[in-house]
Structure to design on (326 residues):
């Protein structure tokens, strides 16, 4: 079968050569990271280090290798003015960065707790524009391009420039990404939800009631039998809902409320929100759209509830109505 290559696609879809070049650099970083992931056990890169990242979480050697690959690839584009990485405390910015240069926010390896059990992991990124040093952190509504790569049974890159979401598969023999999943759309007709149910004791009433209704199945108020899937890799869980519908929740709960949630706004929630909303879904904290959450610090966390828009609106309506009465 003849597929459009990522290169041809970028020439066709992106009028600004430097932006096309940056996306191409990121695609090549993802390809290199996929090879590192594939060879992790052979190279002794599966274990944990004593390092902790800016959020106080354990960094594996492979998190740092992926960060290095991502950063170097981005910096090959001389219009990159700033980089915000999960693995680096400070935002990097060129001292001579000028208005209009690119700001790339990225999670170089998402779901890295899955590395030693050989499950899917990925990378997540957004691209926006540098304005000035005071406004370095990208607002969700200013994102121009977002994407993720998934390192699963095949390597895929899912991309959006805000008009549609397209999925590319790495053709290893031809050594290029090719367009295999054009115009991905999130169906409202869903029977799947994804949440870490081991945190149930921390959930608020709204999330508890939503999950309870899903679990009640055919006999419950939803009158349908839901299925639950949780990969512990946001990329894999979001990719599944882009392919076959569903809902993903990592809500703020009683345990993580002090930090604002678990997932990070700039390089996890925002890019995924931009992708999901472009694909016809909805992304919310429960109380506000994720793309409207003002960024304040590089590693700030947020509640994340995203996927099929009817389901997300149901949750938003429940939050707006207030706590469930006993
Ligand atoms: P990262 O590996 O970049 O730190 O991100 C892990 C995130 C996300 O991918 C996933 O949805 C979530 O953490 C899993 O959390 P639990 O371990 O609480 O399930
Ligand atoms: Mn992550
Ligand atoms: Mn990560």
């Amino acid at each position: 079968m003849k597929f459009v290559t990522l290169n041809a696609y970028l020439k066709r879809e992106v009028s600004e050569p430097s932006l096309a070049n940056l996306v191409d650099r990121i695609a090549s970083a993802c390809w290199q990271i996929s090879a590192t992931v594939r060879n992790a056990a052979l190279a002794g890169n599966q274990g944990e280090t004593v390092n902790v990242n800016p959020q106080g979480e354990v960094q594996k050697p492979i998190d740092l290798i992926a960060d290095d690959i991502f950063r170097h690839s981005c910096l090959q584009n001389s219009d990159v003015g700033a980089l915000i990485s999960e693995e680096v405390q400070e935002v990097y910015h060129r001292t001579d960065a000028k208005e209009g240069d690119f700001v790339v926010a990225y999670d170089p390896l998402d779901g890295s707790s899955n590395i030693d059990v050989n499950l899917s992991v990925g990378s997540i990124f957004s691209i926006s524009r540098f304005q000035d040093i005071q406004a370095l952190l990208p607002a969700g509504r200013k994102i121009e391009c977002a994407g993720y790569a998934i390192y699963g049974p095949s390597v895929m890159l899912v991309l959006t420039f805000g008009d549609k979401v397209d999925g590319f598969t790495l053709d290893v023999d031809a050594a290029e990404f090719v367009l295999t999943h054009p115009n991905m759309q999130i169906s409202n007709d869903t029977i799947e939800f994804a949440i870490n149910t081991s945190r149930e004791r921390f959930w608020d009433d709204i999330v508890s009631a939503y999950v309870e209704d899903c679990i009640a199945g055919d006999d419950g108020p939803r009158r349908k039998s839901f299925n639950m899937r949780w990969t512990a890799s946001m990329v894999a869980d979001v990719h599944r809902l882009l392919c076959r519908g569903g809902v993903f929740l990592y809500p703020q709960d009683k345990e993580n409320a002090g930090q604002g949630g678990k997932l990070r706004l700039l390089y996890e929630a925002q890019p995924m929100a931009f992708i999901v909303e472009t694909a016809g879904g909805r992304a919310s904290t429960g109380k506000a759209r994720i793309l409207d959450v003002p960024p304040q610090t590089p590693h700030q966390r947020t509640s994340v509830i995203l996927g099929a828009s009817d389901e997300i609106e149901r949750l938003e309506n429940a939050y707006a109505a207030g706590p469930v009465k006993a």
Remarks:
- The chain has a mean pLDDT of 95.
- The pocket of manganese (II) ion (ligand 3) is lined by residues 63, 86, 107, 109-110, 112 (CB under 6 Å).
- Residues 67 and 108 are 5 Å apart (CA to CA).
- DSSP finds seven helices and 15 strands in the chain.
